[in-house]
Amino acid sequence: MFKEILIALQAYGKAHQFIKQHKLLKWILIPGLLYLILFMISMYYFGKTSNLFIEWLSLKTGLKAWLDGMNDGFLGFLFTIGGFFLWIIQMLFYFSLFKYVWLILGSPVFAYLSEKTAAIIEGKDYPFSFQQLGKDIIRGIKLALRNSLWQTVYALSILFLSVIPVIGWMTPILAILVECYYYGFSMLDYSMERHKKSAAESIYYIGQHKGLAIGNGLVFYIMHMVPFIGWVFAPAYAVVAATLSIYPLKQSTNE
Question: How far apart are CA 199 and CA 202, in angstroms?
């Protein structure tokens, strides 16, 4: 798995050179700017909702009154830290929902970018077809819905663990790894479809190469730490990097 994660990480550097060399920047900026606007608006409202939920939960459960009555500074500190991690888990969950909406909206551009990247690497043309594009979009939507369902199950389980003091402190890391896997999964599936793998075959293949998905999603998340610029470039770079990451693996395993 670690070798595959490394391949996925290195693919982002190759993607940057690839995009510059083949003048694909316009296919990066157009969806990227739209993503930036939607991301800023959604995360602002998500943040407000998370704060209100934590406040409501502490009042409804009587936790706030109990802590005030205990007057224990250390206990209050533990639950403050727990509340902070609960807020992070909620933000990751909200971001996950936003991500799937974006994957559905951006699927035509992402499918084209993946196909264009493969065509350049393989030195052959993939003729444009509205029928094929339609199939790519429908497949992308179905897999996005399937992944969002499973990720929601995992996210709710992690959310439950996050309210447990000390144990809950590790849940953001677990939540991020789950997020990385499912986002990378979606990016890799564009290549799976082009190689004529069914949805079931794609699920199996990527499940056998989790490192590629986790590594791809990990850099996607790291890019979000760079405000504005990272938000613009992260989605499309992830598509190109995912497409490039498939080829070293194919050469070493003949898959």
Answer: 5
How far is residue 191's CA from residue 101's CA, in Å, rounded to a whole number? 20
3-class DSSP state for residue 142?
helix
Residues 6+ apart with CB under 8 A from 9: 215, 218, 219
Please state the domain count of the chain.
1
pLDDT of residue 72: 62
Instruction: Tell me if 86 is assigned to some domain.
Output: no
* Selection from 253, 3, 251, 2 nearest residue 121 by Cα: 251
Contact 11, 203 (CB under 8 A): no
pLDDT at res. 94: 76
* Cα–Cα distance for residue pair 240/117, rounded to 1 Å: 7
What is the residue range of 161's domain?
Answer: 2-41+92-249
